[in-house]
Amino acid sequence: MLRTAVRYFSIGSILRSPETVAAAAGAASVTASSPPSDSGAAVPITTAAKLLRPLDMSRSKRRNIIRREKRMKRQIIRDVNNAKKLELRNVKFHVDPVLGDPNNEFIHRIRAELNEETNLANNYEQEELVKLLYGAEKAAITKNSISQNNSILFNSITDIEQKKKRAVLTILNMKNTNSQDKKKLAVKIAQREFQNKEGDTGSAEVQAAILTVRIHFLMDHIKENFKDKANIQCLRELVQQRQRMLKYLKRHDAEKYFYTIKKLGLTDDCIVREFNMDKNYLQEYNVWEDKVLVRLSDKEKTKARKIDDLKKKVNQYRELAGVRAEELAKHEEQKATIRAQRVAESNHAKTEN
Amino acid sequence: MARQNFVGLVVSQGKMKKTVKVRVQTKTYDKSVHKEVVNRKDYLVHDQGELCKEGDIVRIEAIPKISARKYFAIAEIKVNKGQQFALYEKLASEKVEQEEQSQITKFFERRQALESTITHIDDLRSLDKLAITFQNDPSADRQALLGEINRIKSKYDIKSWPSTEPILKLEIREESKDLSVLEHRVENIKVILEKLFSEAEYNGVKDELLTKLNVVDKPKPIQKNIVRKYILNPKNECPISL
Question: Which InterPro entries does the annotation name (chain B) (predicted)?
Fold first, then answer.
């Protein structure tokens, strides 16, 4: 009994000290350490297997409890390791591999530029246009130079010219243009932001930026038209093309590559890992809001359910471990007080005798 | 006996503490096909300082076994490509942040430039109107009108109104000006180059231009070509006045 008690205490002390837990996790033999999210508590998950032991307990009962604890501990370690294995099998991308980070500044800025009033449709510059329209007004006035001294005629001419100006600016407003023209402007802005020198349209980072803009525009279209299979295929090809382009850039100029992907809101794994924009992707990232695209077979369903159950089980172990640790601490305290009392009583009895 | 030594590529890092996976390639002679074939083997390698990153090329050395699958340690990092990538990644996020700020300021500058041209044109239009009323309306306050006209004139440095000189800079006009310059230079390019490269009085100008274009130690035909390209750009100044 003494031996088992000593062993229990020694195991408990080893598992409880955080340094030894970390060391054990590093050695890869004990994989059942707590996850990094609640590492502050530093309670090993195997604590869930611990059972309370009253002080006055028969030897056979104690042996039984130890046996149960061991069995439970083995089960926990097995479950945790299996869950880890399954997790490694389908690692998720850090960001959406098609659209990238949703909070990306570059894309937000380009979308804002399309609604900006200073930009005009059909590649017109507003500054030049305003100047030219003023020139037209002056020309109209000098054409009627015979009656230039007539202020009424002057006013009517300027009024007409103002109306013309307003009409031209309305026609050329970005709100009244088509999506193709908007895309052209977006591509132009992207090209200017990434170019190495004036007029650089061909370097890999510029091409990647332009492809990104096109991907975003095409995705907007596809979100509204889920039956447009041809354009879905087109988008798929664009994503692959961008991936290829960025892979090339990584090989040749790594510094520029990391700058480009950061600016476009992508991550390294979106480029390096294999990706195909299939139905699984479209469903997982809710392109058409909860539209079911992939139906699982019965076999696959049971498999998925099993995986879910396993994950739930591991989470339960984690919660239980925390609760058990508190319980055990309390129990130990109680035991200690009872022991102290007993010792005091026995001393008292001795002195009375 | 010397310790076992391999050179390999780090293929996995960060999944285990102080441990990386290193892929080692060895060539062995295959008897059945009578040629050398490449064999690959992945080792778990001890990395005490956690210095390695994915993509590094490292030399590994055998050590006494420290766990079930670990009996190698990192001896040296030969090519630190993975570490460079990690550094670039860090630098990129800083650079992008700075760039975002500069882009926003650029955007507001553009907007301001447009606003200033619009006010410029509005002023010119009001100047027209004032001039007309000054001429036609005898009942108007002539002193006030004159003061207003003079204020606008001095603001944009206009000498007379209505003026015969161009008051606004137009892109089309600039381009046509450039075109005339270009035509003139194309006509005389042979003479310019001949003078620049053969006559002694232009030696100083020539040397200055060559250092500016960074082609001093290149052969003469290449120098000539680059200088030709420089002169045929109308934005640059011609070194010789014709």
Answer: NA-bd_OB-fold, Ribosomal_uS17
CB atoms A158 and B125 under 8 Å:
yes
* Interchain CB distance below 8 Å, B103 and A132: no
CATH code for the domain defined by B5-79: 2.40.50.140
- Establish, for the pair of chains A and B, how many residue pairs have beta carbons separated by less than 8 Å: 92
Give the DSSP letter string of A255-305.
Answer: HHHHHHHHHHT--HHHHHS-----HHHHHHTTTTSS----PPPHHHHHHHH
Asked whether the beta carbons of residue A258 and residue B88 sit closer than 8 angstroms, the reply is yes
Please name the residues in contact with B45: beta carbons below 8 A apart, sequence gap of 6 or more: B19, B20, B21, B22, B58, B60, B70, B72, B73, B74
Q: What is the mean pLDDT of residues A313-337?
A: 92
Q: Is the pLDDT of residue A146 over 60?
A: no
Q: Where are the domains of chain B?
A: 5-79, 83-168, 171-231
- Which residues of chain B are modeled with pLDDT < 70? none
- pLDDT score at A276: 93
**Range of lowest pLDDT (A48-52, A126-130, A240-244, B224-228):** A48-52
**Within a domain: A291:** no
Closest-CA distance, A98 to chain B, in angstroms, reads 20
B89 neighbourhood in chain A, CB within 8 Å:
258, 262, 268
pLDDT at A147: 57
Q: Do A127 and B135 touch (CB under 8 A)?
A: no
ipTM summary value: 0.74
- The whole-number average pLDDT for the span A233-259 is 96
Element (H, E) at B15: strand B5-16
List the single residue in A113, A118, A254 with the smallest CB-CB distance to B85: A254
Domain span at residue A14 reads 2-92+304-352
Six-digit token pair at A349? 């009895």
Q: Is pLDDT above 60 for A77?
A: yes
CA distance linking residue A273 with residue A257, whole number of Å: 16
